[in-house]
Design goal:
Layout (H helix, E strand, L loop, with lengths): L4 H11 L1 E3 L1 H9 L9 E4 L3 H5 L7 E2 L5 H8 L6 E5 L4 H12 L5 E5 L2 H7 L12 H6 L1 H4 L5 H10 L1 E5 L5 H11 L3 E5 L24 H12 L4 E5 L8 H4 L5 E4 L4 H14 L3 E7 L2 E7 L7 H4 L21 H18 L8 E6 L4 E6 L27 H8 L1
Parallel strand pairs: 1-5, 2-3, 2-4, 4-5, 6-7, 6-9, 7-8, 9-10
Antiparallel strand pairs: 10-11, 11-12, 12-13
Helix pairs in contact: 1-5, 10-11, 10-15
The structure holds zinc ion.
Zinc ion (ZN) binds next to helix 14.
């Protein structure tokens, strides 16, 4: 006669190793940031996990045990401690790992998280998304590189956009849609009819209103999760150190070199990564300047680029679609930096030529003689920030 369910679990439990919560607790407490010496795996369902789990645990629901355990514990000779609510499911899972999957040192936590809590030990409660957020970000939650953890990072992220113009418009819209929790927008301009050929965050109704207000309205309508911080001003030496500290990533869509130099020097000092793009005609370029991880803007342009390439010297033509292309590449780099995923465009300059439909990548190295990033951040003084050769003369030469 087959055993009853309860008898079967008792039988399995007699065959596997169990570990008392106090042993697991003291191993975690004594770890000093080096890890407790075992992999702790929660085999419960997602809603149970979301309600709280043991600190440092990884989540592999029992229903996905065979297919996902290697992601959590790739080394089969490693010690693995499994737990569930009361110790039954983890006992069965331990049996499977040992007898079917060849794990050599598997234990099940006696009494599960219930006994753990009864002993008064700490439980970690992951930040939960609301039902609406789960639905809004469901396509992110399905991507292994993002998931709940990544979405939480995005919601906690603070991104500053310099300019709500051609590049800032698509960037702001997509970052808002992706759920970046705080978007700062710096722009002192009003919406003009000639902007609408490319600055898609603004509408015909918004002509004459401040770009920061118009952008805020669009972001709110798209995603109420996003908090917009407006700066109706031009970024300059007098305000940069009031505006940029505290942001995780800065999106540079500024149209003039003096501000770029100033931004570079301040962000190197504060160690804030900058995703920088520029556009002219049918050409776009993009790079990520992550202080001390790669070159800075001054390593790339120790002297300003040729004057005829300085868009701020006058109104220049640009294909209306191009800032969309480059702005979305910027938004993608921002998301990668926030998630810590992939290979950001650090030390690489990406050139896009729309007429030929070509992308070219150039390597950019840190300049050991760079006046800014060759020195520690605390050595960069206020007086040095944004120092730029005679700009008026520079623009005049451009005609
Ligand atoms: Zn540098």
């Amino acid at each position: 006669m087959s055993p009853s369910g309860a008898e079967f679990i008792r039988l399995i439990k007699s065959q596997i190793d169990e570990v008392d919560p106090s042993d697991v607790h003291s191993a975690i407490e004594g770890a000093n940031g080096e890890g407790p010496g075992f992999v702790l795996v929660d085999v419960r369902e997602t809603d149970e996990w979301d309600a709280g789990h043991l600190p440092g645990a990884r989540h592999v629901p029992r229903g996905h045990l065979e297919s996902r355990i290697e992601g959590a514990a790739p080394d089969r000779s490693q010690r693995v401690v499994l737990y569930c609510a009361s110790g039954n499911r983890s006992a069965l899972a331990a049996h499977t790992l040992r007898d079917q999957l060849g794990y050599e040192h598997v234990e099940s936590l006696t009494g599960g998280i219930t006994l753990w809590k009864d002993r008064g030990y700490e439980v970690e409660v992951p930040r939960a998304l609301t039902k609406e957020q789960r639905e809004r970000y469901s396509r992110h939650l399905l991507v292994p590189e993002i998931g709940l953890e990544g979405q939480t990072k995005l919601l906690d992220a603070k991104v500053l956009l310099l300019g709500a113009g051609g590049l800032g418009s698509p960037t702001a819209l997509y970052l808002a849609a992706a759920g970046v929790g705080t978007l700062g927008i710096v722009d002192d301009d009003d919406v003009d009819l000639s902007n609408l050929q490319r600055q898609v965050i603004h509408t015909t109704d918004g002509i004459g209103t401040a770009k920061v207000d118009s952008a805020e309205r669009a972001v709110r309508e798209l995603n109420p999760d996003v908090h917009v911080v407006k700066y109706k001003t031009r970024l300059d030496a007098s305000n940069i150190m009031d505006i940029i500290p505290g942001y995780d990533v800065i999106v540079d869509g500024v149209d003039n070199f003096p501000t770029r130099y100033l931004l570079n020097d301040a962000t190197v000092r504060l160690q804030i990564p900058v995703v920088s793009a520029s556009i002219l005609g049918f050409d776009g370029q993009l790079s990520v300047f992550k202080p001390y991880d790669g070159p800075c803007y001054r390593c790339l342009y120790p002297v300003p680029p040729p004057a005829e390439l300085a868009p701020s010297c006058g109104a220049n033509g640009v294909l209306g679609v191009l800032p969309g292309t480059m702005g979305l590449l910027q938004a993608t780099e921002v998301v990668k930096l926030v998630l810590g995923a992939g290979e950001p465009l650090i030390g690489r300059l990406l050139l896009y030529e729309a007429l030929g439909a070509t992308f070219t990548e150039l390597k950019v190295r840190r300049d050991p003689e760079c006046p800014i990033c060759s020195r520690p951040p605390e050595d960069i003084s206020d007086e040095e920030m944004g120092v730029f050769p005679d700009y008026e003369a520079f623009c005049a030469a451009a005609g």
